[in-house]
Write a structure and sequence with these properties.
By secondary structure, this protein is of the alpha+beta class. It contains 3 helices and 4 strands; from the N terminus they run H-H-E-E-H-E-E. The chain has a 4-stranded mixed β-sheet, with helices on one face. A hairpin with a 4-residue loop joins strand 1 and strand 2. The chain is globular. The N and C termini lie far apart (28 Å).
């Protein structure tokens, strides 16, 4: 059921963050927090990354990554530069389960 609610919740969240790379990165972290999928998210302007820890499989992580990246495009939220969303497992902080570019 959580999988069905996730895309629906994304459509209704209103960002309270500036429309720039770092502001959008914080918005992505806010999505993860508000949907309850993860409470561990870190945005870094220095590395242009949004790192999230989720207890899931690599396949599901890839799907979540894709949904977030596409939703940001649909919302008109531009990251500029080379921002990337990386999803990690709780027990593997060295290698992401999935990674995707945030446009």
């Amino acid at each position: 059921m959580r999988r069905l609610l996730f895309p629906i919740l994304l459509l209704h969240l209103s960002p309270a963050f500036p429309d720039d790379g770092l502001g959008n990165a914080y918005f992505v972290c806010d999505i993860f927090e508000k949907t309850g999928i993860s409470t561990e998210c870190q945005a870094s302007n220095a590395t242009s990354t949004v790192d999230v820890i989720i207890d899931t499989s690599a396949g599901e992580a890839a799907k979540v990554c894709s949904v977030i990246a596409n939703s940001m495009v649909q919302k008109g939220r531009s990251f500029g530069g080379q921002w990337q969303l990386r999803i990690f497992a709780p027990d593997r902080a060295d290698q992401p389960l999935a990674a995707c570019r945030l446009k």
